[in-house]
Backbone:
């Protein structure tokens, strides 16, 4: 629909001219056409692809920037030859500078247990623009003629987001492009000098016959272009239990309000639960052991969250001055999360701050809870007693933790004192930066320590705590290793390996899908580094980081099982000796590879 | 979650400092807190509200800009006195420059038929920041003691979006703020020098007793601030039929792919249908008579659509060279849209261009349909015959139109010729800019002419066409009147009145929810003026424009009924004389008010 000729206004005429510059780009779940911008034109050999500029509008239709091979200042791409090229890229993050490599290395081989997921990555690049890049995999067949079912093997294109860099605490205007999201797009184009990683995942069925399975991954473009990548997967006789049976304590905080806002649905509406189910089941597939719940409004504030958390408990001060607590949202959400495979622990944020809001029945106002210390104590004792008896009636007592996030020892102490006196049946959870023993006189039932604060003394305490039935884990947040996009992919895998090697119960990460405003396009949120607030993308779409974090958890479970079966080796145990661990990027990647190889050999 | 102290990195320390600047803002469906930025501080008297700056991040949490009263260059707001103020703002778009007005004009009165919706608007403003602005309405009671049910009366806060201005065809950096969206937020704050319009809607029950109903709308802020607005609604004994019974032909194009993309769900998944249902039922509430369907990929291109339309018909070229057509999406969507109250007409876009894509079974490629003219004709004849027999089998023959959008007469002629010869059972629809008679030798079953092209000769043709059972409507798109945010609100109401006055069958608008990337924040799309591509917001949330467009359609139906009952008056008919219509903004507003008053008097 455009303006009728006899009423054309200038902006419309211009508009049509503008339109001619636009190239057709498709969206979510269909065919994506990525077209090179001016930058690409410098090395264009196929003129039919050249001469287009991309108006700002279109940069948003699939990716914030078109992934292009890095050109030197003369506009030349080193090592780029005419034609359609590709290689096995391994499990590293690919960018414009490292995409081109040894094209003789096309073959992929891996070792897996039954019921395990294994991954591979390939990258293709082309000097000329090519249309309709698409992947297909032949059946994986063993020498004995066994075949892995087709649905066991999937390929996903790596999709890119930008993230702003931070220098000396200030957000800079520089935006870097990161391949991370694993997308369900069926086909897409390569612009001139474009590259595109392709992610392979094999989910070995629990009943797969051991053996060596072979097949071919084919990447086609246009009608005639085709590259073959030989695949070889050795399936061992070991069987990995299902995630619900995994022992590692995994705590990735969930954010229901981010899902509601992003998907444009009302929090805790039927549509919201339909969507949440997809995210919670994905989280459960990592062996998640906790449900993130809230008992106050805004337990963190906006420094960590584009979308504020609200309380799952509605508090009302009745006209007669008495108080009522509505747990209907809390109850339904917890029950639903359990159905999705989360739990048994229920971590309720938070007591620190002793602050929430309630509705004043008389005026209809939403007010902040009384802050005067005496009244405040009265308020919280009243609530905690009511809450304890409620969860007891629900049969959840023993699984419910009042959770604190990096609170000062004094805050922890006052919270613990209040909790123990008012509701001794509720447990205490905290992520902190000191050994538990430094919080004098407080027994923290579930404690997580920041990776960078871990000492041999802490690891000793963890063993004693475990004997007492207390949970002790470590968490990453900034520093290294970490899961953000600015850190090497290997660091995600290292986290699970580190936990089992150090004799900790598990791992914690504060953000599974605490999205910035538009995570499919910009992964950064204020000063948080790109990807620092989430691992899963809307859809849900998985990420390379998510799959590698899960990979490390799988390795941890395999190590536990091998040890229990007395099948571990001195070689493997040597690699798992915490005293020898370093905190260097190089170490993480080498040690992950070494541990993986040692486990695969058994 | 923040970094452990012993591993703090500078950006984190800085990050925390940054955080102190952030104010807590809530999102979708809850309490929204809008805080004045530096601009507001110039006229702040309540220092507790002053001295805050808002980082870019927060501007996105509820509205792109905080609505503030217009200050002159000295930072003074003319006519602003201390305290909390308000007035009846009428049915005009309120902004920072026209919000302040006669505070003695607080009373609202209106006249309604039974089963009709009537609206009012109020605006409040305050020199000091006030917290928790909220609205409540007392029961509307008649002298006879009849009471309108509580759910019949609703209030919604007006929410703002920005739109960029276009000068001489170029997008300028200037962004204007427009109040348009009717939001479900329960409470929000007024910053210092802030204003906020509140929208009142009364949906009179079909069984309401005629009479004069009175009540009070109260706008409260904080604990003590309160403004009362007396309401008086006269309910006549006339009854307006339900939208499904309305006679005016209404065609507002729907865009399933925009809903799928915005809400982040897969097109035509169960979740997508759940969401689409809410939008389609809202469209049906305007008496929508057509279902927008597609039979080709990308019938328009991206010039009109941030989200491309795709084909609801999957075409495959089999290995043996034969062709297969999968109508499953088309069938389910049309059936679903009918269940939602749309139809009976099914407008299928498009034949113009003779271009679509199909899947080549042999290579798995998606290719463009053959463009060579002979092959092309062969392709389309084959498809159209198949399509005709399919819709015949579905029992839809007679309701299915192949639709063209502003095609050149030659394109129309070739399309019509092809359609008539290949599938004479399918009808033809087109929006154009010439009288139907100028498309020599082509009978267009459903024709819509751009408002600016309407002449007395065309209106004569429309009457002859109606006698032949053909549908003739007018459409707006740019120019004036129009529904975009840059046009006065009254023009939306005028469209329906104009159609009935001119003896046309109805109205057409190309965009009910063809959203730009982020319609809740920026209403503009490339050169299209703000709001020019949509009337409904995600949620769905209604808009002032949507309600006023519907209001004009209701008036048109009331005029039709009054005429049929012989109750129209010379005074009313004089106001409806097309020969006297002008194309000036001033005329539209005066004539809408005059027609409304004349109808209300009957």
Residues:
């Amino acid at each position: 629909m455009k303006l009728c000729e006899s009423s054309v206004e200038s902006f419309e005429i211009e508009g049509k001219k503008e339109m001619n510059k636009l190239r057709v780009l498709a969206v979510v779940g269909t065919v994506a056409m990525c077209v090179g911008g001016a930058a690409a034109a410098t090395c264009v050999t196929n003129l039919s692809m050249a001469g287009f500029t991309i108006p700002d509008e279109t940069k948003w239709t699939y990716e914030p920037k078109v992934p292009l091979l890095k050109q030197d200042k003369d506009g030349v791409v080193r090592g780029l030859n005419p034609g359609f090229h590709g290689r096995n890229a391994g499990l590293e993050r690919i960018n414009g500078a490292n995409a081109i490599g040894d094209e003789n290395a096309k073959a992929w081989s891996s070792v897996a247990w039954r019921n395990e997921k294994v991954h591979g990555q390939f990258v293709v690049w082309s000097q000329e623009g090519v249309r309709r890049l698409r992947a297909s995999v032949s059946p994986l067949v063993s020498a004995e003629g066994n075949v892995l079912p087709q649905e066991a093997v999937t390929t996903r294109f790596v999709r890119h987001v930008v993230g702003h860099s931070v220098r000396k605490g200030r957000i800079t205007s520089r935006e870097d492009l990161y391949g991370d999201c694993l997308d369900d797009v069926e086909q897409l184009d390569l612009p001139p000098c474009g590259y595109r990683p392709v992610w392979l995942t094999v989910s070995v069925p629990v009943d797969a016959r051991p053996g060596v399975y072979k097949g071919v991954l084919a990447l086609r473009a246009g009608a005639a272009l085709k590259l073959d990548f030989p695949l070889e997967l050795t399936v061992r006789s070991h069987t990995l239990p299902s995630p619900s049976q995994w022992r590692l304590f995994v705590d990735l905080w969930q954010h229901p309000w981010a899902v509601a806002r992003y998907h444009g649905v009302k929090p805790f509406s039927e549509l919201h639960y339909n969507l949440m189910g997809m995210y919670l089941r994905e989280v459960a597939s990592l062996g998640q052991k906790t449900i993130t719940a809230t008992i106050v409004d805004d337990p963190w504030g906006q420094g960590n969250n584009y979308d504020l958390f609200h309380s799952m408990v509605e508090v009302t001060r009745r006209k007669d001055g008495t108080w009522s607590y509505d747990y209907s949202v809390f109850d339904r959400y917890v029950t639903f999360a359990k159905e999705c495979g989360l739990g048994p622990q229920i971590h309720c944020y938070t007591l620190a701050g002793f602050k929430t809001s309630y509705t004043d029945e008389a005026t209809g106002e939403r007010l902040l809870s009384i802050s005067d210390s005496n009244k405040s104590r009265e308020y919280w004792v009243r609530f905690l007693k009511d809450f304890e008896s409620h969860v007891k009636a629900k049969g959840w007592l023993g699984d419910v933790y009042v959770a604190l996030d990096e609170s000062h020892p004094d805050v922890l102490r006052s919270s613990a004192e209040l909790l123990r006196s008012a509701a001794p049946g509720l447990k205490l959870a905290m992520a902190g930066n000191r050994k538990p023993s430094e919080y004098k006189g407080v027994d923290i039932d579930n404690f997580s320590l920041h990776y960078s604060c871990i000492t041999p003394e802490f690891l000793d305490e963890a063993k004693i705590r475990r004997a007492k039935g207390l949970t002790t884990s470590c968490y990453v947040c900034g520093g290294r290793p970490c899961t953000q996009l600015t850190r090497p992919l290997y660091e995600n895998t290292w986290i699970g390996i580190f936990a089992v090697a150090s004799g900790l119960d598990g791992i914690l990460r504060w953000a599974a899908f605490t999205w910035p405003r538009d995570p499919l396009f910009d992964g950064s949120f204020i000063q948080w580094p790109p990807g620092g607030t989430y691992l899963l993308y809307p859809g849900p779409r998985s990420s390379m980081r998510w799959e590698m974090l899960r990979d490390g958890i799988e390795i941890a479970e395999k190590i536990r099982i091998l040890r229990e079966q007395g099948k571990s080796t001195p070689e493997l145990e040597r690699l798992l000796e915490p005293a020898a661990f370093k905190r260097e990027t190089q170490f993480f990647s080498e040690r992950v590879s070494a541990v993986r190889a040692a486990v695969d050999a058994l």
Notes: Confidence is low (pLDDT under 50) at residues 2-59 of chain A. The CA atoms of residues 25 and 61 of chain A lie 6 Å apart. Chain A touches chain B through 96 residues (CB under 8 Å). The longest strand of chain A covers residues 153-167.
